[in-house]
Amino acid sequence: MRFSTLFVTASALTLSGCMSAGPVDPAISQQEAQQAYQQHPAVLQEFGGEVGGAVGSYVEQIGDSVAVHSGTPNAAALYDFTVLSSAVENAFAVPGGRIYITRQLMGLMDDEAELAFVLGHEVGHIAADHGQQRRAKAQQNSLLGALGAILGGVVGGGSGLGNLLAQGAQQYAQLNTLSYSRDQEYEADTLGLRYMGTQGYDTMAGASMLYSLGASTNLQARLQGQNTRQTPEWARTHPLSENRTARAQQQAQQMGTAGGMRNRDQFLSRVDGLVVDDDPEQGIIDGRNFIHPDLRLQFTVPTGYRMSNGTRQVSISGSSGQAIFSTGQYNGNLNTYIAQVYQSVVGQNSNQLRIPTPQQTTINGKRAAYTTARVPTQSGAVDLSVVAYEWGGDRAYHFATITQAGAGLRPFSSMVQSLRQISSQEAAAIRPRVIDVVTVRSGDTMQSLASRMAYRNYQLERFMVLNSLNQNSRLQAGDKVKLVVYGSR
Question: What CATH number did the domain enclosing 338 receive?
Answer without folding.
Answer: 3.40.1000.10
